[in-house]
Specification:
Elements lengths: L4 E7 L8 H7 L1 H17 L7 E6 L4 H7 E2 L3 E4 L5 H15 L4 E4 L8 H12 L4 E5 L5 E6 L17 H11 L4 E3 L9 H7 L12 E2 L3
Parallel strand pairs: 1-2, 1-5, 2-4, 3-9, 6-8
Antiparallel strand pairs: 5-7, 6-7
Helix pairs in contact: 1-2
Amino acid sequence: MSVPIIQLFLKAPIPGYVKTRLARTLGDVRACAVYKALVHRQIKALPAGWPLEIHFTPPKAEASIQSWIVGADRYVPQADGNLGARLAAAAASAFRRRSGQVFLIGADCPTLDEETFYSGLAALTHGNDVAFGPTRDGGYYLLALKLFEPALFQGIPWSTPEVLERSLQQAEFAGLIATLLEEKDDIDDWDSLRRSGFTVADSRNQPQAEWHG
């Protein structure tokens, strides 16, 4: 059996473009440094041997993304549309290219570790079609799929506390067996950063994030 694909959704690390809610407290430059540190941490915490795809925005940032995240298997501009459309396009592409499982993640969860990925894989290999990693604010930090189902990405009120609940409803509507992984915090604003205890090294000392899958 082939190992899962990880699809990591990123924005180019441009002050004022990333972590805008956090920037209301920290300012654009410091918020961007937090974002870069989160991405570096996440890259280091991925399971060895799993293919990594970077799905990035804006599309014109490909060169800077490739120089920042070194060693990924694919670099793909995110599709047009809302978050659901972008996630759906990426997942559909992966399942068209190969069989196996697909894990969709961002870099906002400072405790998403290798153990969690293997928990998601175990869930998919023991009768579940989809596994969500729930966040305490009502969203999810990870979506693990055994098959592509468009309904999971349709009719979801993205960026609201109803994301996970509606996603579970959509899974049930589509006849999918879904399960939940461990609940975790993600970092969106100053309060969530403070609760997480996540500390940020000087981003100038982290010019690249290397992946050795």
